[in-house]
Amino acid sequence: MASETARRRGSRSARLTGRRAANSGRKAANSTAMRVLARAGLAARGVMYVLIGWIAAQVAFGHSGQQADRTGALQTIGTTPVGEVLLWLLVIGFVGMTLWRLCEAVYGAPGSRDPKTSQRVAALGKAVVYAVVAYSVLKFATGTGGAQSSDTESVDLTATLMKYPGGRIAVFVIGLALAGGGIYLAYEAWKKEFRGDLRLGELHGHLRRVVEWLGEFGGIARGAVFVTAGIFLMVSAADAQPRQAKGVDSALRSLASTPGGPWLLVLVAAGLIMFGVFSWCEARWLRL
User: What is the mean pLDDT of residues 173-191?
Assistant: First the structure.
């Protein structure tokens, strides 16, 4: 009898300890510090997209040999007088973005009482992506390794997967998911789903319309890049040719070889710059 009572007390104590730990975690996730880190992450993402879009616009007219991807953006930042400081600010921003998405995966988005499993999984996936970005920026900032181009990363990953049984299927599925995700991002932007996440009540007149315009067209351009990269992955899997896989740089450059010529690339480049500016708007007015 005494042992049974002790067991129940121990179980009750463990549950209370678990609840306290969960409550402490939720408080940390909703703390001012976490909100600051999240906004820093959005600002860092904005910087990256603006630079990639700017490089892509120059590439369209043959005025830049720089890679229109994360590597090119980091190299551009590194050549400025305050490059070292900016790189470390980006590291902080992307680490903050990673922690914010991890908190969403564990506790759900702020204000959501019963987050769906799909939302948690999506947040976890974003956390992994931003952790990879943060690590690559950190290596670049410390000089311990130059960031690989997105093209090299795509080819290496594709070649590695294709060495294993079922690897081609895996690459095709990844490409399909990437293209599908791009279509979804573009659709969400077109429907202006982002409006529910912003404090638009603080914006009036022309400013509100500009923010919505940036989110709509910027999001569509971002989705187009994902779709293009996904299609290249699927083609690579179908032909069993890893080198046909393309990163952001080659995906963007391929737009210039379409019947629309460089103007299609210019249009998408402008959209990426717009998405970068929209990310800065999110850093200011996103509900957190």
Answer: 94
